[in-house]
Amino acid sequence: MAYENITVTAEDNIGIITINRPTKLNALNKETIVELHDAFEAYDQNSYVKAIIITGSGEKAFVAGADIAEFADFNVDEGEKLAALGQALLFDFVQDLSTPVIAAINGFALGGGLELAMACHFRIASDNAKMGLPEVSLGVIPGYGGTQRLPQLVGKGRAFEMIMTAGMVTAQDALAWGLVNHVVPQAELLDLAKSIAGKIIKNSPVAISKAIKAVNAGFEDGVNGYNQEVKGFGEAFGTEDFKEGTTAFLEKRKPVFPGK
Fold first, then answer.
1. 28 and 134 part of one domain
2. Residue ranges making up the domain that contains 192
3. Which of 135, 229, 240, 244 is catalytic?
4. Active site residue: 35, 41, 78, 115, which one?
5. Residue 4: which residues within 8 A CB-CB, separation 6 or more?
6. How far from chain centre, in Å, is Cα 71?
7. Mean per-residue pLDDT pooled into runs of 10, the chain (260 residues)
């Protein structure tokens, strides 16, 4: 599929999605959100791709926010629909994807950019990256999950400070707060993402998808994450991956998981 605002490549069982709007600092507009949804969905359905990396083009920005010009004249109903559609189409979709997603934050990750990174299963950042949710400086609040995911990652107090001040934090602060897992020089960012993805893809994709579902369940209202874990654990025993993994262990060899 041809895209206007993103580029996609796949090699060594790793899919790479690059947001490519450098003149707009990779800001998210409606078309980009739709294209990202389509790319994530295509990779999730592609048995060759066992891990996904998302990053931004250039050296300045991962995603420097949403395209404000698109919604500056919206009314109440239009604003609510914008947030609801965006969450369903992209942010919640990425969070619940069965294929693991790594955000490689290569610069500014602001507003919707940070929200997209937080929707990924985990994040790594270049040492020049800066992250923040500046929405209140525009008279609005984060609408793509930022008020929910940020406290889960950094705690309520730090999340309130970031949201209320509309300020940015450095990659080093983000690392100390648990917002990102690793910080490296920008030239090493994609290599690190590929290295981590390479470790992931050696493991059972079926088990990983069940683990994603179980972890996410613990953050859902009205859902017992322990029950989801028990269910996923039991279901794993009926998979070909379980048979291969246990057989390989007993035979003292590396497993070759069929992904079934």
1. yes
2. 6-200
3. 135
4. 115
5. 31, 35
6. 24
7. 93 98 93 97 97 96 88 91 95 98 98 98 98 96 97 98 98 98 98 98 97 95 93 97 96 95
